[in-house]
Amino acid sequence: MKRNVELVVISDVHLGTYGCKAKELLRYLNSIQPKILVLNGDIIDIWQFKKSYFPKPHLKVIKKILSFATKNTDVYYITGNHDEMFRKFTDFELGKLKVCNKICLNINDKKAWIFHGDVFDASVQHSKWIAKLGGKGYDLLIVINNIVNWFLEKMGKEKYSFSKKIKNNVKKAVKYIGDFELTASELAIDNHYDYVVCGHIHQPQIREVVNKKGSCIYLNSGDWIENLSALEYHDNEWKIFYYEDHKHLLKDDNTDEIPDINSNDLLKIVTNFTK
Questions:
Q1: Which CATH code fits 3-117+193-273?
Q2: pLDDT over 50 (residue 129)
Q3: pTM (whole model) above 0.90
């Protein structure tokens, strides 16, 4: 049985990169039936895009998203920095799929402000070559980490995350994450939003931020590289879904009527969009 969910937010999938956990994401998407699906940036990694590497699971994720959009799910594709090429298609609509830079949703009489979050990143805004170089370095780190974790699993030991270790122990990284969350929250409070929902920093989070002007709930959907996480809103409650905590309950389900699109044709469409 699929779970009915009012709103699902995923971000930082990075389709087209070696670190993307497309198979796991597909299992999650096959387990839910959301009324609204928000793709909050960096879904297709155009920075790292190579026609020579876009395996079937990555294409299946795109097909699944299109399947949602052809049925009863409103799908919003919010652009991020790794898929910034799509910003020239802002306000493009195809059925229930809409491309945008940010959205504001009314959720049970409360306002949710949803955007990727790269607008706060100075390296992205002013020195894109540095940001892209950093992106390649992160990709390499993930590939090495995956190899190490493969050996750890074979030895019966727990997986280890190089990236999380760096983020949690390097003062600048910790400060950057804290500044990011605070900046987004303060802007939301200034503009009278009840929720502010971001991606970008690959750090799942739900927390209340309070200042002299008021309060809001800051949320981050995490990523599908390391955390394998999503935000879900249902029955007046926000939750972070972690794939690792629920994977034993998920089953491979290919019974959906996915649009009949040839994988090669779909890849051509993606390639044309990234030119």
A1: 3.60.21.10
A2: no
A3: no
